[in-house]
Amino acid sequence: IVFSCILLYVVFQKLSARLRALRQRQLERAAASVEPDVVVKRQEALAAARLKMQEELNAQVEKHKEKLKLLEEEKRRQKIEMWDSMQEGKSYKGNAKKPQEEDSPGPSTSSVVVKRKSDRKPLRGGGYNPLSGEGGGSCSWRPGR
Fold it and tell me: Compositional bias (Gly residues) at which positions (predicted)?
């Protein structure tokens, strides 16, 4: 048994030395296989991809700025219209909403029924307090008295 253990130890040492040498050779081959031309080409391709992505981002930013500018122009135009109609003594809220309704291809205004807020009932009574414990249920908190 002792002899077999010594034999296994020697074989293990020889195999580990060979594995280390094999790994070292593979690392040297990998380092030698990396040519400067390949590295330069890879870096150029990476730089070109970054430049392309930056240009796309800049184009998106320009489109977004144009949209914001158009929205601001539309808001300014509506404010001017509201001011003009208010100066004439007309209802400025109704006039401000008319251009938007004309632009939208929605259903006709005669078929749409609009509910007023006064028709709605409140969901809870005016004296409702969730901390008072009046809601029923198995557990409730009551303030200390």
Answer: 124-138
**Is residue 95 within 8 Å of residue 80, measured between CB atoms?**
no
What would you measure as the largest C-alpha separation in the chain, in angstroms? 114
- pTM above threshold 0.70: no
Structure tokens that stand for 103 in this block:
């632009």
Residues sharing a CB contact under 8 Å with residue 143, sequence separation 6 or more, in sequence order: 131, 132
Give the CA distances from residue 119 to residues 114, 122, 123, 140, in Å, rounded to whole numbers and listed in that order: 11, 10, 13, 33
